[in-house]
Amino acid sequence: YNLTVKNMFNTYVLTPDQTANLANVDSTQVSFTQPVNFSQGDVVASDINSIAPDGFLRKINSISADKKTFYTSQAALEEAVKDANFSFQRQIQPSGSILNPYIEGLSKSSASSLFDFSVDLNSVVIYDFGPGKLTADGNISFNMDYVLQGRINNHSLEELIFKIISTEKCDLTLKSAGSFGYFSKYIPLGEFSLPPFTIGATPTIPPIPITVHPKIEIGVEFSGGIKPAEVGALQEVIFTVGLKYDGGQWSPISDWQHKFEIKEPVLPFSSLGFRVSGGPPAKFPLWGVAGPKAK
Description:
It is a single chain. By secondary structure, the protein is mainly beta. It is built from two helices and 22 strands. Strands 1, 8, 10, 11, 12, 13, 18 and 19 form an eight-stranded antiparallel β-sheet that branches. It has a six-stranded mixed β-sheet with strand order 2-5-6-7-4-3. The longest helix is centred in the N-terminal third of the chain and has 5 residues, at 16-20.
């Protein structure tokens, strides 16, 4: 990554001793076992630790008489930094990830793969339409990079970019024993919960850690009609999605390279008019409280 920052103002990062003395952190206060010499209006940052697993960036609004409890609100980076240009990129790793299935039949893949994340679908019910069910078997695999860029000028946020760059392969077999008219629906299947990480820190004295807590949802989107059949669908996608703040306005970022293939039906199919895709909508809160969601 590259980053240039100057002219810090009333900003502090917890020292190792102060971190060791942390007693509690919640959405409105930070408390210590020993007095700490912070003042009202200061911005205080912390890296990831056992008491603050997402780290934090807080502005102090008031202080207890014993200077052990500080009543705070979420601070913005531009409150802590006068001028900055920064750019970070990190590949999201599966280490420590936990898959939380929303639906029966979804599991982490045990087969070797070129992808960092891979899940298997075993008779997963995509849609229950009364007389029958649409089910899916197969695999969804993907790699994912997270990009954070920004520019701060005179304590004013001029540009902020969140981007997710993903390479994905979705290989599914759909089965149906009944018929149903056209519908379009996104079906969430489960979520990868990953441990928070520090994507970078401002090269200042002191450096401000920027922490990210990713959550990646696995889902299938289907549009079309259902006939009694068994048919395969293969999708390969490289995409960049995200949000950009520039000149006081938010705008979406979207760039797709898409390949979609329908395999030969196993059973007779009178009307093969459908689309199916699987992929990872993702959330990346900064300091565990705010950040983009991309789909």
